[in-house]
Design brief:
The structure holds 2 protein chains of 2 kinds. Helices cover about 0% and strands about 40% of the residues of chain A. Chain A is mainly β. Chain A has one domain: Methylamine Dehydrogenase, Chain H (7 Propeller). Chain A has a 4-stranded antiparallel beta sheet with strand order 3-2-1-28, with no helix packed on it. In chain A, strand 20 and strand 21 form a beta hairpin. Chain A starts with a strand and ends with a strand. The model of chain A has no long low-confidence stretch (mean pLDDT about 95). By secondary structure, chain B is of the alpha+beta class. Chain B has a single domain, classed as Beta-grasp domain (Ubiquitin-like (UB roll)), CATH 3.10.20. Classes of the chains: A mainly beta, B alpha+beta. Chains A and B meet through loops of A and helix 3 of B.
Chain lengths: ~350, ~90
Amino acid sequence: MSDRILLATRKGFFDVRRVCGRWRIAATAFLGDQISMVLRDPRDGTVYAAQALGHFGVKLQRSETEGRTWHEVPAPAFPRAADAEKGPSVDYILALEPGGAAAPGRLWCGTIPGGLFRSDDRGASWRLDEALWNAPGRAEWRGGGFDKPGIDSICVDPRDPRHVTLAVSTGGVWQTADGGGSWRPTSEGMFAVYMPPERRKDPLVQDVHRLVQCAAAPEGLWAQHHNGVFRSTNGGRRWREVKAIRPSKFGFAVQVHPGDPDTAWFVPGVKDECRIPVDAKLVVARTRDGGASFEVLTRGLPQKDAYDLVHRHGLAVDATGTRLAMGSTTGHLWVSENAGSLWTLVSGNLPPIACVRFA
Amino acid sequence: MARVAFTDNLKRHIACPVVRADGRTVAAVLDTVFAANPRLRSYVLDDQGRLRRHVHVYVNAERIADPIALSDRVRPDDEVFVFQALSGG
């Protein structure tokens, strides 16, 4: 099991470690700065932290010393447009993923306003995926929570690094089989009842808050959508709604067991216009049967006066599928050592947490 | 050469001492500064070379009128000041 958790928070980077059976904050970096995303690349041990400096833009920091020292590398940036007044600029890094064991050095980065960037040199340089940016239908993407659309999830097929599945809020699920040379929307079966009737099943309007892929069975995908929970068992070619989710179908976070595509976790909130836990009780919903049924896990979580929201990257599972970590907008960090059955509070005094990752 | 100074808030992230720089426009002056300090560019300008939305540039006492192309004129004895709008919590 992983004994290390990295956090991206509103006020800095946190390195949390389990020492002698107890989790504690072992190190911090960039205190005072908003960090939107963190990653420890398991292929080479490099740690990345994406800064969202309110005034001074998006920056990417890299550490080859497990976070002891950092240096800035170029952040993904759009090429200059013919019309500088209208050209895009990266507002926020929303997803950062290693490009697969067979593509060392490759990283994928999803941004607001919807640009996907690829690096083949560990972030030393970035290139906009022009095929996706210019894809028919991309113009239909809209902001979901932010003013502009964001690529929030990037799933690299462990069998083939050229096969990438990503999610857009809002813009649905897209896939490439050739490393980003061409893309197609794969949101069939998703729907959004809040849209006009003619557009509800339109693959380009689907608001996928978070998409995850089972490492051992990559055909198994789960999505927490603005409209509810969806699952695919055929690599995203067809999605079906998972109606058994409770206590509500709205949320942002989802994780799937890396070894079992039928086991997944969610953190439901009341609904889109009221983003707090149902009855002010924070719970995790777990299915072990592919979504046919859910257990509502409460042990160790606040069951009174709790107003924590768990963002789309606020829930993590380690490589064993046994240890989970969860961070909230209220600055609480919990860990579970038994797949969510019991949670232990690590800290309740952190800044609002955007991203939790095992390292 | 114009005198170019930066907000202390920016100095928290990157070294940017007061410098003297040639140029007849704000764009030209900043290009001179960035030539010697390339990493500074992305802190002040966005991907398209526009002034970042929450960054302001004043020439002497006047806020520049063109945050897109930075075409405002600069004279050799002018002071160019780069600072941030106040926001956040």
